């Protein structure tokens, strides 16, 4: 069986992609399926944690056993769900793909097709939930971010990941290479695990459950020894 090394901890995981409405039937969204976040929640529950899973839009995935599930549509809703649950959390993992922008106007009625060119869609910046978590972090809380980066070479992805870790101020950052059918929607994931103390290691291509296991191993090591290795 799995180690029960998350027993006694409350962990919060966000999953899926937010949808930002334009009108009653249309939205801006992204390709996140929720599979990575659900795998993180499932593995944490199997290792003994009390788990709150805050889920934005996902494909159909069975509810993980023994997990408190909170649904969120937009980035604003995901923010409230995550911040509420994070108030007494020991670990927060942000695997959700949160829209950075939302349409400034949400029209009450369906936008009509016209003969002239449509007006451009004005966008407003969404709150950065991970940055807010870091700013409000309680003593002893561990915060893990994910980063979806495109790049021509793995070097680009890592360079962007390192900059994002420094900017966001979380304890661990999982950097996924995306694009070309990688990470989003598929069953497998790979990337790099970057720690605030400068430790870096590759995560080989494998199931999202395996990546989840490596993330929880790193969280446990960080909490018990102050370092990931
Ligand atoms: O859902 P799947 O199909 O299984 O795919 C998994 C995944 C590729 C979506 C996942 O592994 C992943 O990488 N999630 C993060 C994707 C992302 O939005 O990355 P980002 O670089 O835009 O954001 C960086 C971090 O800030 C993330 O932890 C994100 O949750 C967080 N964020 C981003 C924007 C925002 N407004 N608020 C946030 O908290």
From TrEMBL:
Record bears the keyword Ligase: yes
Stated name of the protein: Coenzyme A biosynthesis bifunctional protein CoaBC
Residues that bind CTP: 100, 110, 127-130, 146, 164, 168
Free-text remark on how the cofactor is bound: Binds 1 FMN per subunit.
Region (Phosphopantothenate--cysteine ligase): 11-229
Catalytic activity: (R)-4'-phosphopantothenate + L-cysteine + CTP = N-[(R)-4-phosphopantothenoyl]-L-cysteine + CMP + diphosphate + H(+); N-[(R)-4-phosphopantothenoyl]-L-cysteine + H(+) = (R)-4'-phosphopantetheine + CO2
Organism of provenance: Labedaea rhizosphaerae
Gene Ontology CC terms, in alphabetical order: phosphopantothenoylcysteine decarboxylase complex
Molecular function terms, GO-annotated: FMN binding; metal ion binding; phosphopantothenate--cysteine ligase activity; phosphopantothenoylcysteine decarboxylase activity
Record's keyword annotation contains Cell inner membrane: no
Residue range from the parent sequence: 181 to 409 of 411
Cofactor(s), names only, from the UniProt record: FMN; Mg(2+)
EC number(s) stated in the UniProt entry for this protein: 4.1.1.36, 6.3.2.5
């Amino acid at each position: 069986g799995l180690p029960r090394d998350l027993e006694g901890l409350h962990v919060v995981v966000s999953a899926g992609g937010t949808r930002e409405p334009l009108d009653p039937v249309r939205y801006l969204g992204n390709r996140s399926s929720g599979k990575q976040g659900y795998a993180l929640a499932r593995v944490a529950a199997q290792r003994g944690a009390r788990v709150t899973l805050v889920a934005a839009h996902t494909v159909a995935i069975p509810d993980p056993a023994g997990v408190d599930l909170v649904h969120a549509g937009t980035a604003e809703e995901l923010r409230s769900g995550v911040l509420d649950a994070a108030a007494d959390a020991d670990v927060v993992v942000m695997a959700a793909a949160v829209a950075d922008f939302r349409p400034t106007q949400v029209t009450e009625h369906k936008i009509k097709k016209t003969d002239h060119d449509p007006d451009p869609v004005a966008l407003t910046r969404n709150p950065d939930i991970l940055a807010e978590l870091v700013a409000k972090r309680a003593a002893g809380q561990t915060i893990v971010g994910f980063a979806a980066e495109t790049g021509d070479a793995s070097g680009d992805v890592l360079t962007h990941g390192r900059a994002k870790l420094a900017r966001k101020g979380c304890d661990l950052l999982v950097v996924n290479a995306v694009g070309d059918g990688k990470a989003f929607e598929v069953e497998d994931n790979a990337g790099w695990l970057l720690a605030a103390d400068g430790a870096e290691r590759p995560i080989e291509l494998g199931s999202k459950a395996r990546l989840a296991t490596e993330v929880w191993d790193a969280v446990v090591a960080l909490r018990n020894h102050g370092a990931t290795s």
